[in-house]
Write a structure and sequence with these properties.
18% helix; alpha+beta; 2 helices; Alpha-Beta Plaits; single chain; 4-stranded antiparallel beta sheet; 6 strands
Length: 111
């Protein structure tokens, strides 16, 4: 079973091929992808690497997390499944425009 790793802190010049090369010394790399901004086509500074086994993935994490790649210190960790994260980014507290009623201190168009 493959294990997906998150790689953060990448240089904007790091390519997917360079990412693959950095992890190849730890085992079979199924895929290596630098995430690109769809509007600008530039790197977003992070990517994902899929290793063939958990042992290979763990070896890569322990050796590469905090190491330097293309002049930048990178963060390497086992990727969290898509959609997880405990709902931290959902909802929120709403706008921030006053209290709505009289004397709420918010914006009023009649002033």
């Amino acid at each position: 079973m493959t294990v997906k790793l998150f790689v953060g802190g990448l240089s904007f010049s790091t390519s997917s091929e360079r990412l693959r090369e950095a992890f190849a010394g730890f085992g079979e790399v199924h895929s290596a992808t630098v995430v690109m901004d769809r509007d600008t086509g530039r790197s977003r500074g992070f990517g994902f690497v899929e290793m063939a086994t958990g042992e290979e993935a763990n070896a890569a994490v322990s050796r590469l997390n905090g190491s330097e790649l293309d002049g930048r210190q990178i963060k390497v960790e086992v990727a969290k499944p898509a959609g997880s994260g405990g709902g931290q980014r959902r909802g929120g507290g709403g706008g921030g425009f006053g209290g709505g009623g009289r004397g709420g201190g918010g914006w009023r168009g009649d002033r």
